[in-house]
Structure formats: structure tokens, C-alpha cells
Design a protein that fits this description.
- With about 450 residues, the chain is mainly β.
- It is built from two helices and 19 strands.
- The strands form five sheets. Strands 8, 10, 11, 14, 16, 18 and 19 form a seven-stranded parallel β-sheet that branches. Strands 2-3-6-5-4-7 form a six-stranded antiparallel barrel. Strands 1-9 form a two-stranded parallel sheet.
- The longest helix has 11 residues.
- The protein is globular.
């Protein structure tokens, strides 16, 4: 497995030492506090998603990435809302979207274009806040951000508050704000404890990642099933793709081809969507209506995935993480009901010396499509699994980890069953050991994501 390098205990300890700005300030001793106090504070600042679920992180979109000193290395950000951050806080910088992909008609259409010159997507780091200049909406960091290319239009970054204490006790289900592409925020739970995190309850970000494609009315016939990429207006061709880690200004919202980890839309009349993916690839979508007589598997919606080299720690692309991709949508006829694609899983990051689990679970699964498509409609593909990062010297107790993808949807028409949505791709678990600790069980869609 690939070991996380940026998020490590040595790095966290270094957050309390002023390095790049040693001549300008001294960070005060950390204040110790416990999770119930954090939950109480954050509960009033964040919406609750269920009586027993608590959101402890806050999120803001990054408008620009800048450098405030005399170097050309990024050390600060301009954000949409600086109010959650204060001097001395720990924050998480995360670039969510922005992978460039090859254009339609290219021999590698839909795949990540490594020659584009900017591959910032997936970069994340935990970093100390040096100062907050609220009139300028600026957050300045105590150390430099990871090396990255100058941001490009269509890249989406967010800044997240990260609760810290010496000991943290999780007594309620912790979740996160779902990823919201409009606000550019959400989808992550991140916690740091200097000595110990005790899990008496679960942390669950399942279905909180990239959104599945929405189902739409099909406006074509059996013939129009060619081409991999179509504009939003092309309802006579295919359903919508899921959301993935590509540039946010990418214009081809429909078509059978995957977009990085996003599943392709149901291709043709009443076809099912492809599965969203992550490190594991999503499955192919369902065939169009039997009435079309089109059994060519090449025309099926493709499942999304993240290439292996984008999950490495041995090149300039090291230390990247990605939400699970959204499943592609089915489409439907007049008076019928298709189903959307499942949402991908979110991200959990835990940094501590000892992680103690009282038979708890860390859940970052992709969403299954549970609604049933009617006759004359296609079903959506399942969402891809998310990512769980654990940096702990010791893990004790029984801990279940789930980064599996969700199941695709089904149709209810016995004599025309060609439009089901398809399976999903699994996510990734990262930990800083050479082997999986005793007592930790993992659930993947396939078996190569640890």
C-alpha cells in the first residue's frame, strides 16, 4: 500500500513549531479539550443530519491560492468565508476538482491528460493557520502549502477546520456536510488527537462525495446511440454522466464515456448508467431497450476510475486522495420513472498516536441506487467508494472499514430488462503500517485498494 507522507505525526508536531515564519511569531501552547465540548460548539454552527449525527468540521471555498511573502511558494488563500478560522487553528487544504481530460474524439477521450501541465487535484495537507485577515478574506499559513502548479480556471479547492485535542472521544455518529458542487464545500471528516482517539461510535461519510447524475427525459429514438460525449442539451443521445474529479467547467455533461472517476450516462433509449469509481473501476451500464435491438457492448455506459499512478507516493503525484465518483444516470420515456446515479463516498482522515475502537466502524462507501426504474426507463449506476486515511502508531480493538462502492439500480419490467444501472468501484484505505493491524476488517468492491 501507499503510505501517507504529508499527514503524519511528525508533521503534526511540527505544526506547533514556527518554521517558515520563525522571526514573526511564536505559536502558543496548545489548549487541551475533549470531543464533547467540540461537538457542543460545532453543533450550533453546523446543520445536523439526523438526531444522532454530528458535524464537527466547517468548510469554506477557496477563491484563490496566493503567496504573501517574498517567495513564489503558495502560503495563503482567499476564501469565501473566513469566519470559521482563527490564528493558531489547524486547517485542511484540499483540492477537490480540476483533473484535465482528453477531449472528445481523442483516442484516449475521457482519460486524465498528464501533459496538460497542471495536476493539482487530490492534493491535501493539514496546516497551521498563522493569521486571518478578515477584511481581505485571507487565511495565511504558518508553513508553505505542498508544491503545486498555479491554479487554473475550473479547479476547485476548499479549506476545512480540523478539531484538535490531546484526547478525543467519539460518542455520537460523526458525519460531514455532503459535497456540494455549487458551494464547492463538504465531503470530509478530519480529526487530530495528540495521544488518543476513542471510537465509541461510527464515523460515516458514505454517499457524501461526488454526486450521481440526475435522470432526465430521453428525447431520441433507437438509432441515436453513438458518440461518447454530448452537451446538456443533447437529450436525444444519452443520460447524464456522474460528477467526478475533472475540471468544474467541463461542458460535456452527457454521454457513455467515463470522466475520470465519474460513471458514464445511460447510452441510448432507456439505457442504464455506468458505475462511479475510485481506485477500483465502476461497471458498465445497462443496454438500451430490447425494442432497439442494440446489443453492442461498446455502446454501453462506461464505469469511472482513478488511475494507479494518481494514488502513488513515489512521484510528483504523491499523496493524493479523491472522493468516490458519482454513478451515471439512466434516462426515461414520457410518463416513466428513471433513477439517478448513486453518490460517491466521502473522505475520513484520523491522525493520532493511538486509535482505540470499541467495535466501531469507519464508513466511506458509495451510495447504492435503491429506487426502482419503471418500464420504459433506465436505472442509475452505483457511486464509487471514498477514502479513509489513518495515521496512528497503534490501533486497538475491533474496527470495521468500508470503502466499497454502491450497487446500481434495477428495473421492474420483466419482458424488457435491458436498462439496469451497473456496479461501482471501490475506494482506498491508507494507514501508516506495513500490514493491516489485527482487529481491523476492510470491505472493498475488489481487493487491491489497501
Amino acid at each position: 500500500m501507499s503510505h501517507p507522507q504529508t499527514v503524519c505525526l511528525k508533521f503534526i508536531k511540527a505544526l506547533f513549531i514556527n518554521t517558515a515564519f520563525a522571526s514573526r511569531f511564536i505559536i502558543k501552547d496548545r489548549i487541551k479539550y475533549y470531543l464533547p465540548a467540540i461537538v457542543l460548539t460545532m453543533f450550533f454552527l453546523s446543520p445536523s443530519y439526523g438526531q444522532n449525527d454530528t458535524i464537527i468540521n466547517q468548510y469554506t471555498r477557496i477563491i484563490s491560492v496566493e503567496n504573501k511573502d517574498t517567495t513564489d511558494i503558495f502560503d495563503s488563500v482567499i476564501v469565501s468565508n473566513p469566519s470559521p478560522f482563527q490564528k493558531g487553528d489547524i486547517a485542511m487544504f484540499y483540492q477537490v476538482k480540476g483533473l484535465p481530460v482528453y477531449p472528445p474524439e481523442h483516442s484516449r477521450e475521457g482519460e486524465v491528460d498528464r501533459g496538460a501541465g497542471y495536476l493539482n487535484t487530490g492534493i491535501y495537507t493539514l496546516i497551521r493557520v498563522y493569521d486571518v485577515i478578515k477584511p481581505d478574506s485571507a487565511v495565511i499559513f504558518a508553513t508553505y502549502l505542498p508544491k503545486m502548479s498555479p491554479p487554473n480556471p475550473g479547479e476547485v479547492n476548499q479549506l476545512i477546520t480540523v478539531p484538535y485535542s490531546d484526547k478525543l472521544i467519539v460518542d455520537k455518529i460523526i458525519t460531514c456536510q455532503p459535497w456540494d458542487s455549487d458551494s464547492g464545500t463538504g465531503g470530509v471528516v478530519a480529526l487530530i488527537a495528540g495521544s488518543k482517539i476513542t471510537l465509541n461510535s461510527n464515523i460515516d461519510v458514505s454517499g457524501k462525495g461526488f454526486a450521481g447524475g440526475d435522470t432526465t427525459l430521453f428525447g431520441g429514438d433507437c438509432i441515436k446511440v453513438t458518440g461518447s460525449f454530448h452537451l446538456e442539451s443533447d437529450r436525444d443521445s444519452s443520460g447524464r454522466k456522474g460528477e467526478g474529479a475533472v475540471l468544474s467547467n467541463y461542458s460535456y455533461a452527457r454521454g457513455r464515456q467515463f470522466l475520470a472517476n465519474a460513471g458514464g450516462g445511460g447510452n441510448g433509449k432507456f439505457a442504464g448508467g455506468g458505475g462511479g469509481g475510485n481506485r477500483g473501476g465502476g461497471g458498465l451500464g445497462g443496454y438500451p431497450s430490447d425494442a432497439c435491438g442494440n446489443n453492442d457492448p461498446f455502446n454501453l455506459a462506461w464505469g469511472g476510475f482513478i488511475d494507479a499512478d494518481l494514488y502513488t507516493n513515489v512521484t510528483e503525484l504523491r499523496n493524493r486522495i479523491y472522493f468516490g465518483g458519482g454513478g451515471g444516470a439512466g434516462n426515461y420515456g414520457e410518463g416513466r420513472t428513471g433513477t439517478r446515479g448513486g453518490n460517491g463516498g466521502g473522505i475520513i482522515i484520523l491522525v493520532t498516536d493511538t486509535l482505540e475502537s470499541q467495535s466501531a466502524s469507519l464508513l466511506a462507501a458509495g451510495e447504492s441506487v435503491t429506487d426502482i426504474a419503471t418500464a420504459g426507463a433506465g436505472a442509475g449506476g452505483g457511486g464509487g467508494g471514498g477514502v479513509i486515511v489513518i495515521d496512528a502508531n497503534v490501533i486497538t480493538g475491533n474496527l470495521d472499514i468500508d470503502v466499497s462502492g454502491g450497487d446500481g439500480g434495477h428495473t421492474n419490467y420483466a419482458t424488457d430488462v435491458r436498462g439496469p444501472g451497473q456496479l461501482k468501484g471501490s475506494g482506498v484505505m491508507r494507514h501508516n503500517g506495513s500490514s493491516r493491524p489485527v482487529g481491523v476488517s476492510t470491505k472493498y468492491t475488489d481487493d487491491n485498494q489497501e
